[in-house]
Design brief:
Blueprint: H1 2-24, E1 28-35, E2 38-41, E3 54-56, E4 60-62, H2 72-78, H3 82-100, E5 104-113, E6 118-124, E7 127-128, H4 129-135, E8 139-141, H5 149-157, E9 161-165, E10 170-172, E11 185-189, E12 198-199, E13 219-222, E14 225-228, H6 245-256
Helix pairs in contact: 3-5
The structure holds zinc ion (ZN).
């Protein structure tokens, strides 16, 4: 009987500790959204980001518009192109910003960590950010897509985004190899490109329209007059076989002449 009381007491103490730990971590400020599943929260309420204050949402992978994050593995799992991944990442970043920026949050740590962060969930108005991230279609829980994924992907595909290199003030297409050469490059909508920015000449090659081919007639005739034209773009000079219409006409006239022929040149 004593043993049962002891077990119950231990369980109550543990539960009390969890409640205390959770409440202690309430009303915290989000310091920085590194990406939609990696967020720096001011866990010790000292107004700055210290080591060990990054919270990672466990088992949920996300895309980002950060050009320097390698997301090829997730793209393959989800079955989308690299450009689609960047576009979906752009929307995912906005989602996280809307959900968490300037919000008072609670954090529930799960007691696991890696070299980068502590695993845990973030609560805004007592709602789990982890579940909102998955349900929204932007998060992939254990590599699974939510029902909203296709809708989000279609939204992403319609975006017209470019890479802006702030230092050189040039903008690139999303697949330009020079786009992420500079570390200050970021993805923005084409409509927000500053008016004094220049197109990258490598990826923005203007495809000039090939002029329409016009076929001019080689013989013009009106009444008893015929005019023979030569197309020098095809043949620079008459050949020895009299294949030009003008030549064959003259030969025909000469051969059909009965007495004499006047030729003016
Ligand atoms: Zn470019």
């Amino acid at each position: 009987m004593k043993r049962i009381y002891l077990v119950v007491l231990i369980l109550i103490s543990f539960a009390a500790f969890l409640v205390f730990d959770f409440n202690r971590r309430s009303s915290l400020n989000v310091i920085k959204i590194i990406n939609a599943s990696k967020i720096a929260v001011d866990l010790n309420n000292n107004g700055k980001q210290d080591a060990d204050e990054v919270v990672c949402i466990p088992d949920v992978k996300v895309f980002t518009s950060n050009l320097f994050d390698n997301q090829q593995d997730l793209s393959k799992i989800v079955g989308i192109s690299n450009i689609e991944a960047l576009k979906l990442g752009y929307l995912t970043d906005i989602f996280a910003e809307n959900e968490l920026a300037d919000k008072k949050v609670k954090v529930k740590l799960f007691g696991r960590k890696n070299s980068d962060c502590n695993y845990g969930d973030i609560f805004v108005n007592n709602e789990s950010y982890m579940s909102r991230l998955f349900v929204s279609g932007y998060g992939f829980f254990n590599n699974n897509k939510s029902d909203k994924f296709e809708e989000r992907l279609n939204q992403a595909k319609k975006l017209d985004l470019v890479i802006l290199n702030h230092r050189s003030n040039k903008y690139h297409k999303l697949d330009c190899e020079f786009g992420k050469v500079a570390h200050d490059a970021s993805i923005i909508p084409r409509s927000q490109v500053p008016s004094d920015s220049a197109k990258c000449k490598y990826c923005h090659v203007d495809v000039k329209e090939t002029p329409q081919q016009i076929n001019y007639p080689l013989i013009l005739s009106k009444g008893g007059i015929k005019m023979y034209l030569a197309d020098s773009s095809v043949k620079l000079r008459p050949d020895g076989n009299c294949n030009f219409p003008a030549c064959s006409e003259i030969v025909k006239k000469i051969n059909s002449t009965k007495e004499s022929i006047d030729i003016a040149m």
